[in-house]
């Protein structure tokens, strides 16, 4: 069962949860970073299953502006991916006194996890990216536009409001507008990836609608660990919902 708590930051409170916290396991906890429309609730039962299967504590938090956390104070800057490592993630790490940790990020959360692994290189033991973006490509932008049209239909935002409340429109616009901005035209994760020193596994769904196989291939090529990404056959952009058993098996196999 999850333990819920709050973390204070200069810009507002973050909602967080932890699973498996009662175990006296020496292995460092795994911190989850969610995607562009995500939050703790949208991980569903994956954190609990991961805690049970790995024997590790699992920690997740809603980024500022998402889920049950405080609203973001204004528009989200185009530097938001890099900013997370020294912002909310750093606050989580400080309050929980995490000397060592592993990171698992989904989609843009995977890109943020790479920045966090680079910035906190002396403390991050493992980096796992799932459906992460390493650069901007046409397929990513097209997928975002397609999803935007669905959310702009009558009552479409209610799907986001279920998880983000009155922050739903901000969440959608932050996703769509940042990725289609001029600043993101040439965005790449290369510099952060080159600074990652821990073993890294890039997992990607074979049918991912937001990124080609070149995305995880780039991550694998620039980080320590397997030189090839781990492809989940018949799976799309959200492995923790589409094929959680296989995703967890890949994580366990990687960590030995």
Features:
256 residues, alpha/beta, Rossmann fold, 8-stranded mixed β-sheet, 8 strands, 39% helix, Proline iminopeptidase, EC 3.4.11.5, AB_hydrolase_1, AB_hydrolase_fold
Brief account:
With 256 residues, this protein is α/β, with parallel strands linked by helices. The chain has 11 helices and 8 strands.
Task: Explain this structure.
This protein has 256 residues and is an alpha/beta fold. The protein has a single domain, classed as Rossmann fold (3-Layer(aba) Sandwich). The protein has 11 helices and 8 strands. Strands 1-2-4-3-5-6-7-8 form an 8-stranded mixed sheet, sandwiched between helices. It starts with a strand and ends with a helix.
When the domains are counted, the total is 1
The name of the CATH architecture is 3-Layer(aba) Sandwich
CATH fold type: Rossmann fold
Helix/strand-derived class? alpha/beta
- Output the CATH homologous superfamily: Alpha/Beta hydrolase fold, catalytic domain
List the helices and strands and how they pair.
Blueprint (H helix, E strand, L loop, with lengths): L2 E5 L6 E6 L10 E4 L12 H9 L3 E4 L18 H7 L1 H9 L4 E6 L1 H12 L4 E7 L7 H14 L6 H7 L3 H12 L10 H5 L5 E6 L8 H9 L7 E3 L6 H4 L1 H12 L1
Parallel strand pairs: 3-4, 3-5, 5-6, 6-7, 7-8
Antiparallel strand pairs: 1-2, 2-4
Helix pairs in contact: 2-3, 2-4, 5-7, 6-7
EC number: 3.4.11.5
Enzyme class: hydrolase
Pfam families: Abhydrolase_1 (PF00561)
